[in-house]
Amino acid sequence: MKKLMNAVESILTESLDGFAAAHADIVTLGPEHKFIRRRVLQPGKVALISGGGTGHEPLHAGFVGLGMLDAACPGQVFTSPTPDQMLAAAEAVDTGAGVLYIVKNYEGDVMNFDMASEMAAGPVEKVLVNDDVAVEDSLYTTGRRGVAGTLVVEKIVGAAAEQGRDLAALKALGDRVNRATRSMGVALTSCTVPASGKPMFEIGADEMEFGVGIHGEPGRRRDRLKSADAIAEEMCAAIATDFDDISGKSALLFINGFGATPSMELYLMYNAARRMFETRGVKIARSLVGNYVTSLDMAGCSITLSLLDDEILPLWDAPVHTAGLRWGA
Amino acid sequence: MISEAQLRALISAMATTIAAHADELAALDSAIGDGDHGANMKRGFDAVAADIDQIAAKPLPDALKAIGTKLVMTVGGASGPLYGTLFLALGKELAATPGDYAGAFRKAVDAVAARGKSEIGQKTMLDVLYPVADALRAGKEPSELIAIANAEVAATGPRKAIRGRASFLGDRSIGHIDPGARSSALILQAVLGAFA
Hints:
- Chain A is of the alpha/beta class.
- Chain A has helices spanning 11-22, 83-93, 107-119, 149-162, 167-179, 228-242, 263-279, 312-317; strands at residues 27-29, 36-38, 47-54, 65-66, 71-77, 99-104, 124-129, 181-187, 207-210, 221-224, 250-257, 283-290, 300-308, 320-322, 326-327.
- Chain A folds into two domains: 9-179, Rossmann fold; 181-308, Hypothetical Protein Tm841, Chain: A,domain 3.
- In chain A, the strands form three sheets. Chain A has a six-stranded mixed beta sheet with strand order 1-2-5-3-6-7, with helices on both faces.
- In chain A, helix 4 (149-162) packs antiparallel against helix 5 and helix 6 packs across helix 7 (263-279).
- In chain A, 56% of the residues are buried.
- Chain B has a single domain (4-193), classed as DhaL domain (Serine Threonine Protein Phosphatase 5, Tetratricopeptide repeat), CATH 1.25.40.
- Helices cover 70% and strands 0% of the residues of chain B.
- The radius of gyration of chain B is 16 Å and the shape is globular.
- The interface between A and B is medium-sized, with 33 and 30 residues.
């Protein structure tokens, strides 16, 4: 393992200290590194809080700020944060209009946020993001994972919260955006968690893991590496098939890098995916390309398609000022 | 009645056992999960052991709740809420029905199942906890309970994971022992060993 670090035990806190210092105009760090919060709160606005294991940066701390989250709770690497973090964050940023948790659908995250909700003092709602079409959804499994689509939910709901919408309305909007969002990922390499020092899985030089998640966990199947067009076509087909009918719909196309893939390749995949969705009659109205929901040092990318309507499109365009996303403000 | 000295011994035994097997749990978890089960459990039980003076001085139900709360706040992942719920519920049930260890343990296991929206046979810690709860009610000796726990750990190997991160692997989870089942057996072994 080769990583820029001083000690495995202090990676998280040293990184958070650096993040808070670098973006001191936007955020401050909570006590005991429990959360990152907005420097300036807007009284009367519903507080949006997310969180999850570290290793997906800039998600979630990089999306704290005007137009997105009020606070983010970082867990250990690939490990959910604990309820005391959510409670401390809620106490710090709830200005009286209630708290909305945005949670990726992983058992650990769900259970820890549920326990935090049970212990909460004020009104709390939860939006569960489960956009990953690689995982079969059924009563007998954990269900679909929350992956890159989480960014879309946080952006849209964040913009609506700035407009003063109430907790119930934001919860309903978040659920609606989640249902209109689908993602699919492919990994070319594994990733290495600092504490273990070894790659999460072995993968041959000529292999790819199709349908991978964002923790280096395996996906649908192992396959020989193919051309970018062939990979993009299979990913787009999986997403398109999962929607009822996307022909004639307007959408956001989001190509997300997993951390070790050059922008050059991400834009190449964008080019391929855009062509494939347009062939299916989709109007690509908005685009986002970059490393936003990463998996440490994994190479590969995910494709996210999020349907936009007259309500959602202006919320995507609304001003945002965070460390990870910024426009219009 | 469980004395303060016995409670100290139980807490030490759990922390020592988990620490001694942290690498083994990490290896089991690397095969079908994300490899952090050993480190997370060790962090949690080390935190419990660090508070041993305050915890052991409490009456048993309160001590169990304190252990559960500490685990929830320090372990993280899915294991934190699951083990935290086990100890929190055990403390709550023993407060309601003092001395009924078998009844309280069974209800605590039900609480874990509810927290994880899971049931026996899905390749989780419940595959160990339910058979041990049943055997406890049937009046089995500590040594027999430990043997049952270990047999049930081995039995998770051929199963396909239906819950937990291993469930993403589908059939590829078959042939691996469940790390949560193993850590449950280790904790039971530490606790029961103190009475054997």
